[in-house]
Amino acid sequence: MKFIQSLQNPQVKHWKKLSTKKERGKTFTYLLEGFHPVEEALKEKVVLEIILEEGVTMPDSWDIEGLPVTTVAHEISKALANTETSQGIFAVCRMKKQPSKIIGKRFLLIDAVQDPGNIGTMIRTADAAGFDAVILGKGSAEAYSPKVLRAAQGSHLHVDLLKGDLNMWIEKLKEADVPVYGTALDNGVSYREVDPGDSFAILVGNEGSGVNPDLLAKTEQNLYIPIFGKSESLNVAVAAGILMYDFAMRD
């Protein structure tokens, strides 16, 4: 097993670069941190390399046959970590290829949500609610950024992650006979008043300004979640979770 103790090592510099969007986009790889996310990545066979802090051991049940494993000094582990209390395990993973067409029945569309914690939480909830894909529109936090991955806790491996112009994706959904439900107070109805059926897409928007009006004009129906207290609105990840679970449990 290879051991690295210098922060100036070229391989360490490459790993650190994976914290940048530019390097991830160039190599189509990303750095995953933590035992549970790495274990999920191993199951999906997207791991290219494992990095362990000195003194940290992997479970005997993990299938790592053929994978390079590098042990590193604590200082390197600390430099790679995106958490305050790192578990000292990382994996370099390849990104899944983005499908060019609609596959599945349940979709979450995200318009310009900038907070990576919200994006990661919605990916994790979409996975838990049995959704097939999360589609990230322009202005949204990148799916493979460290903070998104930390919040998603491996769920980014279980759903398709698509990106691009939501106008295009809405048209593709319509062509596939998948109704798109927006989220807005104006011209909206309570989410309990619609019957989404088995196949549907939910569109949520920016934390401050909501969904782009041009996108809302293309939906089947716009929905709102009633507020019973004095809060003006719900966090976008919470609202998305309510809608995804309610729609998924209507069968």
Automatic annotation (TrEMBL):
One Pfam family, short name: MRM3-like_sub_bind
Example GO molecular function: RNA methyltransferase activity
**One GO location term (cellular component):** cytoplasm
Would you tell me the protein name for this molecule?
23S rRNA methyltransferase
Which keywords are on file for this protein? Methyltransferase, Transferase
Keyword Nucleus assigned to the entry: answer is no
| Single Gene Ontology BP annotation | RNA processing
Record carries keyword Nucleotidyltransferase = no
According to its UniProt record, which protein family does this protein belong to? Belongs to the class IV-like SAM-binding methyltransferase superfamily. RNA methyltransferase TrmH family.
Q: Which domain of life is it from?
A: Bacteria
